[in-house]
Specification:
522 residues; mainly alpha; Hydantoin permease; two-stranded antiparallel ribbon; two-stranded antiparallel sheet; 6 strands; 72% helix; 3% strand
Length: 522
């Protein structure tokens, strides 16, 4: 039964990701770049200034008095909590193992255009959001499919059906990739890197030739309690934790990565040469070693890039929509920065660590280990190993723990918003039940021995993408209209232009009034 399920899932996964999704992502990113006249390039100074350059602005980082919203910085950190995860470590090395160094180039390619996909999602999320039963903002692909695509002639039912499909897939994906898969990575890496013989030698049971130990059970229980304390507290608590953990974890990982790269300074040039040459003309050794082709290099790079930054999935917009921002484009700018930080910075650091450390021979194609996570661990160990103390492996295990833990927190909010949409008037009780079930599944992830749950949730993750991209493509003229309106008012300073801020005339008027009263308010 499991074999049949695995074969069906593999067929669907291949169609969703390789044959459809990746190409839809690239097309959407390129189209949005063209429609906005290359906004991520032509206005790079503006979006940089309005994001990381505005970190001293109290409107950006200050906690709002409105308990139903979060600050723009908290929205970014909560979104990054879900996106900066295992994909930044294991995902990058997996792309290199499967597609060679050239896959990194296509990861960059997907990110550069993915910036505008994420930008567009955030704009639509803010534009079509509305208040829920708790007076919190609710936004996401569900709403711009229902009220955006659904507003077109004869498309009301289509928009509603696609919205429901997206919400169902988001809920199911939150249990797998957003929960059990992440926890499983934490437990396996942590218990192997910080082995306690008294606990790891106590085998509780064996499944699929894998021993489930007392150590794994204890770590799983601790994780379940920690996740429960945060998740049950709702968005405000998740955002408060995320804004404290995410910046620190990214900085520490970058510092460790930069140290490895500097120690192997003479290999930086060959690493970049391998990336660029492998992107278009994979050396015969890589083709022979892994059986890759040009198409595989592209799809692996693009797919792993999306795994990492989630641009096009429609997931992070569900958190960005809770921001206290008035301007849809302002949250779109944070979407650009989110992809930039996740892929162009963090993933690039991981790739350079792997390619400069010697764990992969760039000439012969020999790889020390076929395990994605262990490849990065061995790269860190090449510098941070002292005698029998594998500090490099310990560092990566802790990085995976923190990265994956914050991913679980972020995805709990995504799933909660999807359930809220599906439950309608029963949302208050439904979201509480969802959060309790989500927390309980953490322990299941800790003791999981089969990869089928991960594989199926990967498919649901991809199935979120297709209706979301249909919505973004359908709403692309609106994204262009909102962008042009913003450029005219906020960049060119044309005060005669009326703001386009919300699909709801009442919300649009309220936000326009607030912006008129405070020119510095975004």
């Amino acid at each position: 039964m499991l074999d049949l399920l695995a074969r069906i899932n593999d067929a669907v996964n291949s169609f969703v990701w390789t044959k459809t999704g990746v190409w839809m992502l690239i097309i959407t990113g390129i189209l949005m770049t063209i429609l906005t006249k290359g906004f991520q390039f032509t206005h790079i100074g503006h979006w940089w200034k309005k994001t990381i350059g505005s970190m001293l602005n109290k409107n950006v980082i200050g906690h709002t008095e409105d308990k139903a919203t979060i600050s723009q910085f908290q929205a970014l950190c909560t979104a990054l909590a879900a996106t900066v995860g295992v994909g930044n470590i294991a995902g990058v090395s997996a792309a290199i193992i499967t597609g060679g160094p050239g896959a990194v180039f296509w990861m960059w390619f997907a990110a550069i255009f993915g910036m505008m996909t994420n930008y567009s999602e955030n704009i639509l999320g803010i534009y079509f959001r509305r208040k829920n039963h708790a007076d919190e903002w609710s936004g996401g692909a569900m709403y711009y499919l229902q009220d955006g695509l659904g507003s077109y002639p004869h498309m009301k039912k289509v928009g509603r059906v696609l919205a429901i499909i997206f919400a169902i897939c988001a809920t199911l994906a939150s249990f797998g990739i957003g929960n059990m898969g992440q926890v499983n990575k934490i437990v396996l890496n942590f218990t192997s890197s910080f082995d306690i013989k008294a606990l790891s030698s106590r085998v509780l049971y064996t499944s699929n030739e894998t021993d489930i130990t007392l150590y794994m059970l204890i770590v799983g229980i601790v994780l379940m309690v920690l996740v429960g304390v945060v998740v049950i507290g709702g968005l405000q608590r998740i955002a408060n934790v995320a804004e404290k953990i995410v910046p620190v974890m990214v900085l520490i990982f970058l510092c460790g990565s930069i140290t490895i790269i500097l120690v192997n300074f003479d290999q930086i040039g060959p690493a970049f040469a391998a990336i660029f040459s492998g992107a278009f003309n994979a050396p015969a050794v890589w083709g022979g070693a892994t059986g890759i082709a040009f198409k595989t290099i592209i799809t692996q790079g693009c797919k792993r890039g999306v795994f990492s930054n989630e641009a096009g999935l429609g997931s992070s917009v569900m958190v960005h929509s809770n921001s206290n921002v008035k301007e849809p484009v302002k949250q779109g700018l944070w979407g650009i920065f989110e992809v930039f930080a996740d892929t162009i910075i963090v993933c690039t650091m991981t790739a350079l660590v792997v390619l400069t450390s010697g764990v992969i021979n760039l000439t012969t194609g020999d790889i020390e280990t076929e395990s994605d996570a262990l490849l990065v661990a061995d790269a860190f160990n090449s510098v941070f190993k002292f005698g029998d103390v594998n500090l490099g492996r310990m560092f990566v295990a802790l990085a995976i723990l923190v990265f994956a833990f914050t991913t679980v927190l972020g995805w709990s909010q995504y799933g909660s918003k999807a359930v809220e949409y599906l439950a309608g008037k029963h949302a208050p009780i439904a979201t509480k039940i969802y959060r309790i079930f989500f927390v309980l599944l953490v322990l299941s992830g800790a003791l999981m021995t089969s990869s089928i749950a991960w594989d199926i949730s990967d498919t649901f993750n991809g199935m979120m993408m297709i209706p979301n991209l249909i919505g973004v493509l359908a709403m692309s003229p609106l994204v262009k209209k909102i962008t042009d309106n913003y450029i005219a008012r906020r960049i060119k300073g044309d005060k005669s232009v009326e703001p386009v801020l919300s699909y709801d005339p009442k919300i649009n008027a309220e936000n326009a009034k607030a912006l008129a009263e405070d020119p510095n308010l975004d």
